[in-house]
Amino acid sequence: MRSAIRPMPCVRHSATVESTVRGAGIDNYRAEVRVLDLPEPVLLSPEHVLIDVQCAGVGNWDDIVRSGGWNIGCAPPMALGVEAAGIVRDIGPAVTRFRVGDAVLAHAMPVQQGAWAERWVALESQVAHKPVEVAWTVAAALPVPALTAHQVLDNALGLQPGETVLVHGAGGITGGLLVSLAADVGATVIGTAGPRNTDRLMQLGAADVVDYHAADWPERVRKLCPGGLPAAVNAVRGQAGLIMPLVASGGRLATITGDPPLEVRGIRISNCYVQPDGRALEQVATRLAHQRVSIPLAATYPLFDAAAALARVVSGSGPVVLEVR
Ligand SMILES: NC(=O)c1ccc[n+]([C@@H]2O[C@H](COP(=O)([O-])OP(=O)(O)OC[C@H]3O[C@@H](n4cnc5c(N)ncnc54)[C@H](OP(=O)(O)O)[C@@H]3O)[C@@H](O)[C@H]2O)c1
């Protein structure tokens, strides 16, 4: 989730001088999250889509934005949030895929302001239609984890049917989607997770789930794939190096936690950061809906309680969504 985007001043345009929307965000980097009145966002590009936000996702990456570690394209004072689901309120003249009233979801960057707000503007190329069977809350929590999982498996690993892949950290929201999408490709999926997630991951298509609390869990994985893993994904902060010895020489390892190990034994390493992609998001959201894959949300919070929502996510108690209206 790195970016070389230069911050632009947050939403400095308004439909009318006094027109504002409610958001939740920060006055300065590292400040506490609070409710903000933000200038009404407007269509600055002919390719912009203005969205009435229904729900917005809260991830531990939002705390990275809060502390200034991930530049999403604007600077404080700003709303946080990089993913949301809502209804199209207005479109720029070059927009062709969406109409006013469409139900959509998006991970968007760079942005005029974050998605934790009543209205949000995204480029058409970063917006996806929401499958009807996906609830607003789930649609808001999908964009970053679903795109990440898709991009890791398709672009970084190029996972093939019949291959075995390890998902280390399969119990998390992104980890679960990695398991589901890898199984859908026809791969044999081994996940590491705590016991409370074993049944869910087996239902998502894992062939085996190894409890990472056992001291000998790497040995258990090795026994499941004695020749070494052709492909592995790390979704646990700081642990990409730990799974390197399990990967076969000439294999592939992708990590989503910014901790790529050195390349040894011809293993190809990918250090993956999610990229906005509306068409890919639409495909993967539709695929997950058909597979009846949902996200086990820990809680929903009202917008004015965004600080508590973020604190809960940072404490590691699962995915959380803000209900904006
Ligand atoms: N690079 C990117 O673009 C990108 C995109 C999305 C996410 N991420 C990052 O990827 C990481 C995972 O994301 P997520 O959405 O899956 O997070 P998450 O939902 O917060 O994952 C938490 C889960 O990790 C599991 N876990 C914790 N310690 C573990 C260990 N030692 N071994 C195995 N599993 C362990 C736990 O599973 P149990 O409950 O089963 O114990 C826990 O429920 C986060 O650090 C996130 O910031 C990066």
Would you mind describing this structure in some detail?
With 325 residues, the protein is an alpha/beta fold. It has 2 domains: 164 residues, Quinone Oxidoreductase, Chain A, domain 1, CATH 3.90.180; 127 residues, Rossmann fold, CATH 3.40.50. 25% of the residues lie in helices and 29% in strands. It has 9 helices and 18 strands. Strands 4, 7, 8, 9, 10, 17 and 18 form a 7-stranded mixed beta sheet that branches. It has a 6-stranded parallel beta sheet with strand order 13-12-11-14-15-16, sandwiched between helices. Strand 12, helix 5 and strand 13 form a beta-alpha-beta unit. Helix 3 crosses helix 4 and helix 3 packs across helix 8. The structure holds NADP nicotinamide-adenine-dinucleotide phosphate (NAP). The site of NADP nicotinamide-adenine-dinucleotide phosphate (NAP) has 27 residues, from helix 1, helix 3, helix 4 and strand 12. The site of NADP nicotinamide-adenine-dinucleotide phosphate has 27 residues, from helix 1, helix 3, helix 4 and strand 12.
